[in-house]
Amino acid sequence: MKLLYFAWLREKVGMADEQVPLPAGVTTVAGLLDWLDGRGGGHAAALKDRSAVRVAVNQEYVGPDAAVADGDEVALFPPVTGG
Amino acid sequence: MSVRVQAEDFDVAAELAAVREAGGGAGGIVTFTGIVRDMAGDRPISSMTLEHYPGMTVRELERIEAEAQDRWPLAASRVIHRYGKLFPGDNIVLVITASAHRQAAFEAAEFLVDWLKTRAPFWKQEATGSGPHWVEAKASDDDAAARWAASPPVARSA
């Protein structure tokens, strides 16, 4: 799957995007965030405050219970501030 | 009906003329232009950089525009949002709505701005004397978007 990071999440993770295989046992957004958090380092720092993280799967906003599958594009970013 | 995301500036008069043309006999046109402020609270801003999610931004703006068209009888509309490095006084966003009557045009324009502020995937970083900092989302923006009710405008946290 392709993971994308934006704004301060990108800065904390230390990269704009990465390709990862769907981790074993991960079926939901919440599960994916737990797995990323478990990688430690920048990923853990970026996910420290989960309430500040928004997620889009294949460019659609989703909640923590949404399904994720191999091949998905999953974007993590802070609350938006355009306009 | 059209949505654009671009680095370059837009010409408000030219866009207004295009909407007027597309709107046929619309009796009222509302234009909103969002502009880079020169202060963040009490700190002067030297520049602002807008990051966005290229794949998703246009899709999300199109969804928001379609929602406005469902709710109000719009003869024409236009949403343009810039990204990249901008300076105080620069244009950021343009929303134009045309309708037979003013109320629909005013309400739809306000709705479009409220929703794009809470849904369109843009992030502002301001450069000030104390260095760059990411602008935090405002609860007041969430409140402004939420008053339009129906499908919840604010994405849930994960």
Overall 3D geometry of chain B? globular
Q: Are there runs of chain A of 5+ residues with pLDDT below 50, and where?
A: none
Radius of gyration of chain A: 12 Å
Q: How would you sum up the major sheet of chain B?
A: 5 strands, antiparallel
DSSP strand count of chain A = 5
CATH topology of chain B: Aldehyde Oxidoreductase, domain 3
Count of separate DSSP helical elements of chain B: 4
Structural class of the helices, strands and pairings of chain B?
alpha+beta
Question: Which sequence of SSEs, written as H and E, runs from N to C of chain B?
Answer: EHEEEHEEEHEEH
Shape category of chain A = globular
Tally of distinct domains of chain B? 1
Strand order of the largest sheet of chain A: 2-1-5-3-4
Account of the 3D structure:
The complex is a heterodimer of chains A (83) and B (158). Chain A is 28% helix and 23% strand. Chain A has 3 helices and 5 strands; from the N terminus they run E-H-E-H-H-E-E-E. Chain A has helices at 7-13, 29-38, 41-46; strands spanning 2-5, 17-19, 54-57, 60-62, 73-77. The longest helix of chain A has 10 residues, at 29-38. Chain A is globular and about 35 Å long. Chain B has helices at residues 12-22, 54-71, 102-119, 139-146, and strands spanning 2-6, 28-35, 39-40, 43-52, 74-82, 84-86, 91-99, 122-128, 131-134. The model of chain B has no long low-confidence stretch (mean pLDDT 92). In chain B, strands 3, 4, 6, 8 and 9 form a 5-stranded antiparallel sheet that branches. A 4-stranded mixed sheet of chain B has the order 1-5-7-2, with helices on both faces. The A-B interface holds A 4, 6-8, 29-30, 33, 50-56, 59, 61-64, 73, 75-83 and B 34, 50-53, 55-56, 59-60, 81, 92-93, 113, 116-125, 134-137, 141, 155-158.
